[in-house]
Fold this protein.
Amino acid sequence: MTNNQLYISDALSNGWNLWKKHCLLFAVAFFGISTITYFLKVGIELPFSLTQLNNDLFFQNKTHTIYDPIYWESYFKSGQWVGKFVASFISSIIIYPFITGLENCMLNINKGIDHEFSLKGYKMPIATYLKCFVIDFIVGTICMVGYLFFIIPGIYLNARLIFAKTCQLDNKEADITECIKRSWEMTNGNVLTIIGLKILYFGIKLLGVMVCCIGLYFALPLTQFIHNDAYFQLKGNIQTNTIEYQQ
């Protein structure tokens, strides 16, 4: 079987065309999600920051820089790291359905199901949200282990598993293992191109940050539209018929 090839220029062109039509609305959506996440984290961290232990052990060393060992010693003793970890974990859990639903809305636009932003994209079974979360956790863990082995294995694994979550959103009845396997099949023979695609994502987001940071919220929809188009380019590389793929 000859695998479909990914063409970054096509993905960029198609993603750009969709972005021009929908960038403002999705930029506002990403900004709203980011703002909610920030206030959630601040609210959850607040009890940890107000303890007497923090005041006694951490703030008394506020003149020390992050390069001073006593800074980190005081930081860990203060318990603030616990607050930051708990805040990040809980806020990520709460905000995850909003991000996943938004990604599904954009996928529907790429597929031509919707021509404008629609809240119908959020109307997915709870099981789909849970499966997407598990996929993100599994893929993130696998890639993290890969990065520990001199980085390159992590980059390779990330390129092979990049479409697992998108596959789940596109095929909501599919099993988690099926979606991971399909991403592996889809990306066969396109690893270097996908790495190039990831570099493109980084460049677009970097340009967004350079535009007073607010540009990042416009960059995120563009990279997502490009990602979705790349997924559909490689969708034909799936060799088995366990999943009935939507056309």
